[in-house]
């Protein structure tokens, strides 16, 4: 894997990388209250430049939309055209980054003022034929001390027929879909229920107001088939379930692992679960004094091995859960900024008699901890391209 340095780069955060290009999102106020206007750019790392995607198409932040296809190269935008004082035509646009082509996959009319005021939209694009739509509805708790998106309305949209099928499965309707992550061809992991750790909801919600949270596997095609039958008890391959005193803040997929956290609200203990969906093996790690999202345990998957990142005052170390050994450590003045398969990037401040404090960005090879590159400048980001090239982004040292 090659390392390429991009100097004087803006700070970049992205989840989409195609060859040597990444997608950058910027926001600005729109003509609608509580709704931002979005701009998307293709950032070319080779020449440190960016080009706006569909600049003539106004894109609004009405919610989220994601593909359930593995390695999808598509983005989804929401476009709005006012029809009268209360109704707006909302279009969902699919943009293929690799082919530079776009298409309208869904169009409907709604009251735009309801979005981000008491309603949020979440879409899971199964394929060219079906879209799972979830409207998250704002609800006030029993004590009237907290508002959150805790109620759900869901339907399956049939693209070709332009028809809606109401979703009536009791688990999905009562608890909502937190996320669906594609992990292989025709296989997804589903997180149902909402986290009580967010906004410290455990302080505001009664037991009757909480959701049942679960981590499950399902085939998208099977899910669609059961939704079309309007079943009230869709069969999910559930590997874990919690309620009220234990909550699941997140689920993620890295390598062959499904990683999720379970936090016991009463004991303040967190169990991080690494479920290998290929061989069905499970590794766990327990941490104490976890009270909010900021205190959640940090982890990394390096060369398909689960590690716990232990950040203490005297050092930062990586604990291998397979060998039960600490394999790499860094001094307190060297902060770990980014970890990818086989590389660890750190930022280090050094004192110099002539220049004062200077910041360096270091790249190490795992597991030997060989210093591969040392760059004067602050860490601004790191991107691993589809061509297995690591682009290290830095800004001026001071």
Query: What do the pLDDT scores average to?
Result: 91
User: β content, as a range?
Assistant: over 45%
Structural class, by secondary structure, is mainly beta
- Count the helices. How many? 2
SSE order and pairing:
Blueprint: E1 2-6, E2 17-18, E3 21-29, E4 36-44, E5 49-52, E6 59-60, E7 63-67, E8 74-82, E9 88-96, E10 101-110, E11 119-125, E12 130-140, E13 147-158, E14 163-166, H1 170-175, E15 177-184, E16 187-192, E17 212-218, H2 220-228, E18 237-243, E19 246-247, E20 251-254, E21 257-264, E22 269-276, E23 282-287, E24 298-302, E25 305-311, E26 316-320, E27 325-330, E28 334-340, E29 343-352, E30 356-365, E31 370-376, E32 378-384, E33 389-395
Parallel strand pairs: 1-33, 7-11
Antiparallel strand pairs: 2-3, 3-4, 4-5, 4-6, 8-9, 9-10, 11-12, 12-13, 13-14, 15-16, 16-17, 17-18, 19-21, 20-21, 21-22, 22-23, 24-25, 25-26, 26-27, 28-29, 29-30, 30-31, 32-33
What would your notes on this structure say?
This protein is mostly beta strands. It is built from two helices and 33 strands. The chain has helices spanning 170-175, 220-228; strands spanning 2-6, 17-18, 21-29, 36-44, 49-52, 59-60, 63-67, 74-82, 88-96, 101-110, 119-125, 130-140, 147-158, 163-166, 177-184, 187-192, 212-218, 237-243, 246-247, 251-254, 257-264, 269-276, 282-287, 298-302, 305-311, 316-320, 325-330, 334-340, 343-352, 356-365, 370-376, 378-384, 389-395. The strands form eight sheets. Strands 2, 3, 4, 5 and 6 form a five-stranded antiparallel β-sheet that branches. Strands 7-11-12-13-14 form a five-stranded mixed β-sheet. Strands 19, 20, 21, 22 and 23 form a five-stranded antiparallel β-sheet that branches. The longest helix has 9 residues, at 220-228. The protein is globular and about 65 Å long. The two termini are 29 Å apart. The model has no long low-confidence stretch (mean pLDDT 91).
């Amino acid at each position: 894997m090659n390392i390429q340095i991009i100097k004087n780069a803006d700070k970049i955060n992205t989840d989409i990388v195609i060859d040597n290009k990444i997608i950058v999102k910027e926001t600005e106020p729109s003509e609608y209250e509580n709704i931002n206007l979005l701009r998307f750019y293709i950032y070319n790392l080779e020449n440190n430049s960016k080009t706006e995607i569909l600049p003539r198409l106004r894109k609004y932040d009405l919610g989220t939309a994601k593909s359930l296809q593995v390695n999808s190269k598509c983005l989804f935008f929401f476009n709005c055209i006012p029809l009268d004082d209360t109704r707006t035509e909302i279009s969902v646009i699919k943009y293929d980054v690799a082919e530079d082509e776009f298409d309208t996959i869904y169009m409907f009319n709604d009251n735009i003022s309801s979005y981000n005021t008491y309603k949020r939209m979440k879409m899971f694009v199964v394929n060219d034929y079906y879209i799972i739509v979830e409207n998250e509805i704002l609800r006030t708790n029993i004590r009237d001390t907290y508002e959150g998106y805790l109620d759900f309305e869901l339907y399956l949209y049939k693209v070709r027929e332009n028809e809606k099928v109401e979703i009536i499965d009791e688990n999905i309707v009562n608890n909502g879909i937190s996320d669906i992550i594609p992990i292989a061809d025709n296989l997804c992991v589903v997180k149902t229920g909402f986290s009580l750790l967010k906004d410290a909801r455990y302080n505001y919600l009664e037991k009757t107001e909480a959701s049942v949270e679960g981590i499950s596997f399902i085939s998208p095609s099977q899910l669609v088939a059961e939704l079309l039958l309007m079943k009230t008890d869709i069969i999910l391959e559930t590997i874990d379930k919690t309620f009220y005193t234990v909550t699941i803040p997140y689920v993620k997929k890295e390598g062959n692992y499904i990683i999720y956290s379970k936090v016991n609200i009463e004991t303040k203990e967190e169990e991080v679960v690494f479920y290998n969906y290929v061989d069905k093996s499970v590794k766990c790690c327990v941490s104490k004094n976890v009270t909010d999202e900021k205190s959640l345990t940090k982890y990394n998957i390096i060369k398909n091995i689960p590690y716990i990142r232990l950040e203490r005052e005297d050092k930062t170390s990586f604990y291998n859960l397979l060998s039960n050994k600490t394999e790499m450590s860094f001094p307190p003045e060297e902060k770990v900024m980014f970890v990818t398969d086989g590389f660890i990037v750190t930022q280090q401040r050094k004192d110099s008699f002539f220049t004062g404090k200077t910041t360096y960005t270091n790249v190490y090879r795992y597991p030997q901890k060989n210093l591969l590159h040392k760059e004067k400048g602050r860490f601004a980001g790191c991107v691993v391209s589809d061509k297995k090239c690591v682009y290290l982004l830095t800004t001026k040292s001071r």
